[in-house]
Amino acid sequence: MVFHSKKENKKYYTSSPPLNKDLHKKKIQIIDLKKRLIKGIDWFIKAWDMLWDKHGNPIHINSELERKFSDRIVEWLDLQKKLRNVLDYDRCIYGVGFDKGFCPSHSPVKCDGCM
Ligand SMILES: [Zn+2]
Fold first, then answer.
1. How much is the pLDDT for 22?
2. Is position 11 within any domain?
3. I need a labelling partner for 41 at 20 to 30 A (CA). Which of 9, 24, 77, 105 fits?
4. Residue 97 belongs to some domain of the structure
5. C-alpha of residue 30 to centroid of ligand 1, in Å
6. Cα 11 to middle of ligand 1, angstroms
7. Å from CA of 90 to ligand 1 middle
8. How far is it, in rounded angstroms, from Cα 71 to Cα 75?
9. What is the CA(43)–ligand 1 centre distance, in A?
10. Which ranges in 4-51 belong to alpha helices (H)?
11. How far is the CA of 6 from the centre of ligand 1 (A)?
12. Which value, to the nearest 10 degrees, does the dihedral of the CA atoms of residues 80, 73, 97, 25 take?
């Protein structure tokens, strides 16, 4: 909200201007987290393909890769929680500007913005 003081010929803003330091910091954190989450999806897609044979049977059961996959899912969900709960970002991690974005359809993991 803006109100204009005729006496001082100045405009006053009741909330802080849009590009204050905190908001800028928050935007950078959001961009950084989205990048890390997208990198994670890239890895999940590659790893997922290695966990199944071409007939759809699971391979590498109890392997190092499978353990890594579960660990990374936990880390990835933590990062996403931070993005949603701390930074209040509610769209898809692939969203840029006004583009809503979607997680790749062949990804074994989808973000909460796609649910
Ligand atoms: Zn998504």
1. 86
2. no
3. 24
4. yes
5. 14
6. 41
7. 10
8. 6
9. 15
10. 21-51
11. 49
12. 40
Domain assignment present for residue 102? The answer is yes
Determine the distance separating the centroid of ligand 1 and the alpha carbon of 1, expressed in angstroms. Answer: 33
Residue 14 belongs to some domain of the structure: no
Amino acid at 100: K
The CA distances from residue 68 to 7, 44, 62, 100, in Å, are 66, 10, 10, 30
Count structural domains, the chain.
1
Residue 105 CA to residue 115 CA, distance in Å, equals 12
Distance from the CA of 38 to the center of ligand 1, in angstroms? 9
Q: How confident is the model at residue 23 (pLDDT cuts 50, 70, 90)?
A: confident
* Residue 29 amino acid letter: Q
Q: In terms of residue numbers, what domain contains 80?
A: 19-115
